[in-house]
Amino acid sequence: MINNTKTITKLFEELGCPLKIGYHWSAASLEKKRAVFTLWDDGIVGNKYRLLHEGPWMKRPGGVQLNKDVEFALAAGLETLGILCHAVDPLVEPRKRKYFEEKSLLALNLIKQGEGVMAVITGEVDVEAAINGPVAEHISERKAAIEDLDGVPVGALVPEQLRMQGFVYKRSRMVRDYVVHRANGRCEYCGEQGFPMANGSRYIEAHHILGLGTNGPDTVANVIGLCPGHHREAHFGVNALSLNESFQTIVDGL
């Protein structure tokens, strides 16, 4: 397990963009001519990351500040950097950060796309270089994690056990069972049957269309039965937002 030697708040301060009081995910400084954002590693597709998009989470303090910092960065042409964060479990909401990269940062180029903003990753830069000044001359090519493997990883014969602490949302078992029964063994989006299980039923997963971490309700009107593939795509796919909108239309018609 990777242990950070400093807090993420301290890293923001060292980069000249101290976080506002409270729980926030971004900061910007006109004096430093820089904006810094946190990015989840599983949200990166290729070299792109959906930094700003519509959703109830935008009404939370962190979302409100993120919108301000994005607009400020675009209007002022600020140097834009990303702190890469890794979640304990990407499917658990609200997310709990396992660790963040404190030795290197992502160099970003913000581009407006419709009502949202996409962050294009142009490279990476050492934190020390960023602390000492502008990073334009210090950006290097970013390699995907798989490209760093020279051979087959050893892994661990006895995996490390981690003690997890924090809060997660309690999901209603009755809502989950109702939706799975409603789906009747088929994905309510694509219609494909789930794989057969030992008890004779078909495997289907229950997905919250509007996540509980973004104030979504734990009701049958907000849950759809999906095949594993579409469930993962709804969380990690590049078209996750439009996919969830389609889910809601389907559920509204049931």
Summarize the structure.
The protein is of the alpha+beta class and 254 residues long. The protein has helices spanning 8-14, 61-76, 127-132, 173-183, 228-236, 240-252; strands at 26-29, 34-40, 44-45, 48-52, 79-87, 97-100, 104-113, 116-126, 205-208, 223-226. It starts with 7 loop residues before the first helix and ends with a helix.
Q: How many beta strands in the DSSP annotation?
A: 10
Q: Which H/E pattern describes the elements?
A: HEEEEHEEEEHHEEHH
Broad structural category = alpha+beta
Radius of gyration: 20 Å
Mean pLDDT, nearest integer?
A: 85
Number of domains: 2
Summarize the amount of helix as a percent range: 10-25%
Distance between the termini: 45 Å
Form type: globular
Which regions have little confidence, pLDDT < 50, spanning 5+ residues? none
Main β sheet profile: 8 strands, mixed
Count of individual helical segments: 6
Strand content: 15-25%
Protein model, in words:
The protein has 254 residues and is of the alpha+beta class. It has 2 domains: 8-144, no CATH class; 173-252, DNA Binding (I), subunit A (Orthogonal Bundle). The chain is built from 6 helices and 10 strands. The strands form 2 sheets. Strands 1, 2, 3, 4, 5, 6, 7 and 8 form an 8-stranded mixed beta sheet that branches. Strands 9-10 form a two-stranded antiparallel ribbon. A hairpin with a 2-residue loop joins strand 3 and strand 4 (48-52). Helix 5 (228-236) crosses helix 6. The mean pLDDT is 85.
